[in-house]
């Protein structure tokens, strides 16, 4: 026999749920870090329209972290400069992030020595970039107690770094490079290439004469035509199902009419 539903209890639960969601949205808006509202964080530089979502990951050494403008740093992203907090790292920035960079949720950028990320780079979730690697030279000492090795990391502008990729110390990634999800990158990566695997290797490159080699298996996306305004795009995206169905009917009517004309001729 089905149990009777407690309407009052269900109504209270929905109300409480809405209140919790509204409260959490307010916390996220208020806790976000921007140049105008940095909170306790004092970055060496933070550009206009850059936003670090709340809740943050681990952040320290911020005086040696320079963030460009129009960056999006998602939730739980860790940004660190130096091996530990409260170190004096000298006059120059350690971690430089260019304009228009997007760091996906849960990513880590660990800059114990110089790490540079070029403008317009996009990181998927849970990308790990580090300038430090554990050493294991002494077989008699725990690896965690041995002094680590550090090498600068450089990621060129316009790169796409896939979900879960790992960028190791000494990596020098060129311009407009695609790093596949889960790849482990070390060493130099040439401009306009695609790398995948662990360790990552080049699987596709752009040649000025022959284009992409091996050739792309899917056609390039059709760009938005010149002259289309943002307002027109918004109007198209706002079409409801009835309007879309009406447009489809008009297209079918036009095709039918043209077919009749061809048949008569």
Automatic annotation (TrEMBL):
| SUPFAM superfamilies given in the database record | Trimeric LpxA-like enzymes
| The organism of origin for this protein | Streptomyces lutosisoli
Protein name in the entry:
Acyltransferase
InterPro entries tied to this protein:
Hexapep, Hexapep_transf_CS, Hexapeptide_acetyltransf, Trimer_LpxA-like_sf
What PANTHER family does the entry give?
ACETYLTRANSFERASE C18B11.09C-RELATED (PTHR23416:SF23), SIALIC ACID SYNTHASE-RELATED (PTHR23416)
Q: Which Gene3D superfamilies match?
A: Hexapeptide repeat proteins
An example of a Pfam family matching this protein is Hexapep
Residue ranges of the TM segments:
none
Give the record's keywords alphabetically: Acyltransferase, Repeat, Transferase
Gene Ontology molecular function: any one: acyltransferase activity
EC number(s) given by UniProt:
2.3.1.-
């Amino acid at each position: 026999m089905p149990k009777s539903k407690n309407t009052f209890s269900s109504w209270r639960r929905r109300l409480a749920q809405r209140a919790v969601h509204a409260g959490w949205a307010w916390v996220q808006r208020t806790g976000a870090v921007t140049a105008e509202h940095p909170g306790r964080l004092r970055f060496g530089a933070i550009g206009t329209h850059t936003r670090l979502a709340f809740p943050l990951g681990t952040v320290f050494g911020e005086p040696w972290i320079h963030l460009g403008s129009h960056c999006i740093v998602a939730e739980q992203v860790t940004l660190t400069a130096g091996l530990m907090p409260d170190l004096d790292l000298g006059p120059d920035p350690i971690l430089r992030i260019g304009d228009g960079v997007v760091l996906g949720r849960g990513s880590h950028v660990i800059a114990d020595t110089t790490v540079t990320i070029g403008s317009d780079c996009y990181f998927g979730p849970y990308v790990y970039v580090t300038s430090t690697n554990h050493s294991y030279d002494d077989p008699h000492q725990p690896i965690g107690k041995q002094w680590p090795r550090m090498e600068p990391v450089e990621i060129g502008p316009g790169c796409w770094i896939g979900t879960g990729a790992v960028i190791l110390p000494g990596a020098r990634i060129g311009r407009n490079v695609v790093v596949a999800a889960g790849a482990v990158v070390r060493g130099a990566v040439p401009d306009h290439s695609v790398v995948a695997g662990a360790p990552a290797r080049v699987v596709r490159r752009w040649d000025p004469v022959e284009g992409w080699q091996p050739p792309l298996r899917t056609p390039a996306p059709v760009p938005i035509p010149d002259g289309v305004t943002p307002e027109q795009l918004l109007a198209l995206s706002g079409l409801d199902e009835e309007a879309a169905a009406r447009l489809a009917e008009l297209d079918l009517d036009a095709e039918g009419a043209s077919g009749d004309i061809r048949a008569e001729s």
